[in-house]
């Protein structure tokens, strides 16, 4: 699922608490940045059409 848009993560960047982490790259970057291990930091307030988030739900037994 990587490569469409950067995935905004809940974690705060360890070097700067005012920044959040985005992972996975997007279609506007080169292929090497579209790996799930690719990580960048952005300002918490920053919004872009190339940044999204993934909704996940735990399934009960």
Automatic annotation (TrEMBL):
UniProt name for this protein: Sulfatase-modifying factor enzyme domain-containing protein
Source species taxonomy: Bacteria, Pseudomonadati, Planctomycetota, Planctomycetia, Gemmatales
Entry superkingdom: Bacteria
InterPro entries, per the entry: CTDL_fold, SUMF_sf
């Amino acid at each position: 699922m990587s490569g469409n848009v950067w995935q905004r993560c809940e974690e705060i960047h360890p070097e700067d608490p005012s920044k959040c982490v985005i992972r996975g790259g997007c279609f506007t970057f080169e292929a090497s940045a579209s790996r799930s291990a690719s990580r960048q930091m952005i300002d918490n307030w920053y919004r872009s059409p190339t940044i999204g988030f993934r909704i996940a739900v735990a399934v009960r037994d």
